[in-house]
Design goal:
The chain is an alpha/beta fold. It has two domains: 10-159, Glycogen Phosphorylase B (Rossmann fold, 3-Layer(aba) Sandwich), CATH 3.40.50.2000; 169-347, Rossmann fold (3-Layer(aba) Sandwich), CATH 3.40.50.2000. Helices cover 34% and strands 16% of the residues. It has 13 helices and twelve strands. The strands form two sheets. The protein has a six-stranded parallel β-sheet with strand order 3-2-1-4-5-6. Strands 9-8-7-10-11-12 form a six-stranded parallel β-sheet, with helices on both faces. Helix 4 (74-85) crosses helix 5 (99-107), helix 7 packs across helix 10 and helix 8 (204-217) packs across helix 13 (334-347). The chain starts with 9 loop residues before the first strand and ends with a helix. The relative contact order is 0.12. This is lipopolysaccharide heptosyltransferase II. It catalyses: an L-alpha-D-Hep-(1->5)-[alpha-Kdo-(2->4)]-alpha-Kdo-(2->6)-lipid A + ADP-L-glycero-beta-D-manno-heptose = an L-alpha-D-Hep-(1->3)-L-alpha-D-Hep-(1->5)-[alpha-Kdo-(2->4)]-alpha-Kdo-(2->6)-lipid A + ADP + H(+). InterPro entries: Glyco_trans_9 (IPR002201), LPS_LOS_Heptosyltrfase (IPR051199), RfaF (IPR011910).
Length: 349
């Protein structure tokens, strides 16, 4: 990989591995850009997260990380750091909490290296922030805090810029046409997957019931299922129960998914990366929470409804229901979700 030497100081952001976390880190970039408007911001990101960063106006260049997930690959990191050194970074913000990614700016000799304490990172980072495990910061505040000197109290999400992504209308139309959707009809998107685990998934039968109700009440409505290839099985189940729903799980690349979400009339989603993409695109959202806290990573759209039963066992933050009943998600009925979906469709003129 050949990178020309840059004549201006730059900022390096090292991306988290999760799509939703990358979206919620965008306000940090806005704060850094406002502080140094002439300083380009580069992002080092895994291939599967890179399309999200490319949709952020503050990003100058996205560098795709060539490392295997979970592997130290010290020699490869040293070689990559040598390339980064040529780009003239003044500072680096290490968003993952791992030792592996803190090594990179240290090996590259970047003078200011900022991040959370994480795993054994003293010396690798020279501006170290601390989170409180007993009262963790909301994700937007967690990342935005890195723009300032370390301190115990941080601004709430309401005091920060909202996450923001952008997609051109031409790109949106292009992707709609490719997958067979029409721009002149209402488009309801469902995101029934959740990479974290099954505990965060609203049941497929509930998604299907919602789809059938919308199809009956709104002839001509387009309903499509979004997700990766890993979500194909649950999406196939929804289509089996509600024929006429378009299954796009594993069909669209992430950049195409971003473009489709930009054209949605409303999106119904579990607490997942696609939810936070819809939020950053300011699309109407109905967000379904069970084992996770809606206040920790809420949607920020102008039109957003978060549904959360707040059971005595929630939020457990577990990948699988530790009690085996999954009532936090099963107890959210299709009717509870239909009402805010209908309200969003009624206002979509």
């Amino acid at each position: 990989m050949t990178v020309p030497i840059q004549g201006v100081a730059r900022t390096l952001i090292i991306s988290p591995n999760w799509i939703g976390d990358a979206v919620m880190a965008q306000p940090l970039l806005k704060l850094l850009h406002d502080r140094h408007p002439g300083r380009p911001i580069d992002v080092l990101a895994p291939k599967w997260v890179a399309p999200v960063w490319r949709a952020m106006r503050e990003v100058d260049t996205v560098l795709e990380a060539p490392f295997r997930h979970g592997a130290l690959q010290l020699r490869e990191r040293r070689e990559f750091a040598r390339m980064l050194k040529q780009r003239g970074y003044a500072d680096a913000y290490v968003l993952p909490n791992t030792l592996k990614f803190a090594l990179i700016p240290w090996l590259a000799g970047i003078p200011k290296r900022v991040g959370y304490k994480g795993e054994m990172r003293y010396g690798l980072l020279n501006v170290i922030h601390h989170d409180n495990r007993e009262a963790p910061r909301p994700m937007v505040s967690f990342y935005a805090a890195l723009a300032e000197a370390p301190r115990a109290d941080v601004p709430p999400p309401s005091a920060l810029p909202r996450p923001s992504l952008s997609v051109s209308d031409e790109r949106r139309q292009e992707v709609l046409a490719r997958v067979g959707l029409r721009s002149g009809l209402p488009l309801v998107l469902f995101a029934p997957g959740a990479e974290f685990g099954t505990a965060k998934r609203w049941p497929a039968s509930h998604f299907a019931e919602l789809a059938k109700t919308l199809q009956a009440q709104r002839p001509g409505v387009q309903i499509a299922l979004m997700g990766s290839g890993k979500d194909r099985e649950v999406c196939d189940e929804i289509v089996r129960l509600a024929p006429g729903v378009l299954n796009l799980a594993g069909v669209t690349a992430l950049d195409e998914a971003v473009a489709l979400i930009a054209g949605a009339s409303v999106m119904v989603s579990n607490d997942s990366g696609l939810l936070h993409i819809a939020s950053a695109l300011n699309r109407p959202i109905v967000a379904i929470y069970g084992p996770t806290d809606p206040n920790h990573a809420p949607p920020f759209s102008d039109v957003a409804t978060s549904i959360y039963l707040a059971l005595e066992c929630a939020p457990c933050r577990q990948r699988e229901c530790p009690l085996g009943h999954h009532r936090c998600m099963k107890g959210i009925s299709a009717e509870m979700v239909r009402v805010p979906v209908e309200e969003a469709l009624a206002s979509d003129v």
